[in-house]
Design brief:
By secondary structure, this protein is of the alpha/beta class. It folds into two domains: 266 residues, Ribonuclease Z/Hydroxyacylglutathione hydrolase-like (Metallo-beta-lactamase, Chain A), CATH 3.60.15; 179 residues, Rossmann fold, CATH 3.40.50. 34% of the residues lie in helices and 21% in strands. Helix 4 runs antiparallel to helix 5 and helix 4 runs antiparallel to helix 8. It is globular, with a radius of gyration of 22 Å.
Length: 462
């Protein structure tokens, strides 16, 4: 039996709560420590009790389903290092503080409406927990090999997913070499460089989010976006776009800036209603070392990818509330992407019942989230314990995902077949991961496993 063992405490047969523990003879290495998103009761329980006691954490990127449980881990006593890229660290500083603020605010909001005699709802963690977590970060550049424990080394490789995102090459000494993809980006995706090729590794721990789906062409998405905006203009309605404040929002702003500059979409006022997105955009603007050639050329030609003149960022709560009474047409980008909290939930509470409005989804929503229920076009949903009839038009664009699709994953993993690497598929719905596993086996990959949550898997050398 190998001395190196993999156990997934999250993002196994689901797309949320990335937490993968690699146990070696010298250290327990946790790859990511993300929040679990799903049914509220289950999410609260799994996020309050991380269930892992690592010696060191290596963070692939800043998205909350990969980083969001770090303050809870620290609250429970963790005092080791958190290794990340500089851009990831800067994004986490904003994102984790915002997550704590939202948790505190939602807890207060729900407590005002809780039934008498029930226990008060407490936030998962506080902003003080976030401050302690940020003090543990150690920053590294891409392709820099660094020691994480005796005999254990890691190297970050560009994942091309969001700013600062990385795959992790983990050398376990006399044990196997492991490559964790984190969230794998797409080739030719805006703003960021393409993902680095898969390195030689005995074991590949790969995401599988879009393992059965192909992204629609960008030009088709532009046509759909044109129709959505024209509908809003004709009806004087609002377009609510639930979008992750980090990555998706900046890509959408950049896409809108390019289309507006080219004259291919109608002109409509745009508001980014998110203090976190405003902070994250400043981080994006500061880390040009992550940019690809396209956006550098756009900038050199006088383009303003994040601060076009027709776009407004709202930070203060009063500004957000004012949008509820502002007449359309108007496009509002707000987090969270799955509608599980933040300002988008308040906008939907006030605007989902108006048939002149549109709810435009630009990303995947996990099962049992408010976003998934709206995407499924359920006639009624619960928002802050109120029943809301969804009369607004519901639309989706699948071109703006920052994840590799089925073809992208198969192409990225092809070198593993030639090398005889063992593949573990995580961060995907169960049916999706199992289907992708079958595809990989049909293409000649010898060992492909879809791990179960908490189950231990020995990782031998090839």
């Amino acid at each position: 039996m190998s001395d190196v063992v993999l156990r997934s405490f999250g993002a196994a047969r689901t797309v949320t709560g990335s937490r993968h523990l690699i146990t070696t003879p010298h250290a327990r290495v946790l790859l990511d420590c993300g929040l679990f998103q799903g049914r509220r009761s289950e999410s609260m329980e799994r996020n309050r009790h991380v269930g892992v006691e690592p010696d060191v954490v290596i963070l692939s990127h800043a998205h909350i389903d990969h980083s969001g449980a770090l303050p809870a881990l620290v609250r429970d006593g963790y005092r080791g290092k958190i290794h990340a890229t500089a851009a990831t660290r800067d994004l986490c500083a904003a994102m984790l503080a915002d997550c704590a603020k939202i948790n505190e605010g939602d807890a207060r909001h729900l407590n005002k409406r809780r039934e008498k005699g029930t226990r008060p709802i407490e936030p998962i963690y506080t902003r003080e927990d976030v401050e302690r977590a940020m003090g543990l970060f150690v920053m590294h550049e891409y392709d820099e090999r660094f020691e994480v424990a005796k005999g254990v080394h890691a190297t970050f490789r560009d994942a091309g997913h969001i700013l600062g995102s990385a795959g992790v090459l983990l050398e376990t000494g006399t044990g196997p070499t492991i490559y964790f993809t984190g969230d794998l980006g797409r080739r030719m995706y805006p703003i960021l460089r393409d993902p680095a090729p898969l390195p030689d590794a005995d074991v590949v721990l790969s995401e599988s989010t879009y393992g059965t789906r192909e992204h629609e062409p960008v030009d088709l998405a532009e046509n759909k976006l044109h129709a959505v905006l024209q509908r809003a203009i004709n009806r004087k309605g609002k377009v609510f776009v639930p979008a992750f404040s980090v990555g998706r929002t900046q890509n959408l702003i950049y896409a809108l800036a390019k289309m507006r500059r080219a004259g291919t979409i109608p002109e409509i006022p745009v508001v980014v209603d998110s203090p976190l997105a405003e902070k994250a955009t400043r981080v994006f603007a500061a880390h040009r070392e992550c940019y690809d050639q396209e956006i550098l050329e756009f900038l050199s030609d006088g383009g303003r990818p994040f601060y076009p003149h027709w776009l407004r960022y709202t930070v203060k709560r009063a500004e957000s509330i004012e949008l509820n009474s502002t007449e359309g047409p108007l496009l509002i980008l707000a987090g969270s992407g799955m509608c599980e909290g933040g300002r988008i939930a308040h906008h939907l509470l006030h605007g989902a019942e108006d048939e002149n409005n549109t709810i435009l989804f630009v990303g995947w929503c996990a099962p049992h989230t408010l976003g998934r229920r709206i995407v499924e076009k359920r006639p009624e949903v619960r928002i802050f314990r109120r029943t809301v009839r969804v009369r607004a038009h519901v639309a989706s664009l699948r071109a703006y995902s920052a994840h590799a699709d089925r073809t992208g994953l198969l192409e990225f993993l092809e070198p593993a077949r030639e090398r005889g690497s063992r593949i573990f598929l995580v961060h995907g719905d169960e049916d999706t991961a199992l289907s992708l596993a079958d595809d990989l086996r049909e293409r000649g990959h010898a060992e492909v496993t879809v791990p179960e949550t908490y189950a231990p898997y020995s990782l031998p050398l090839r």
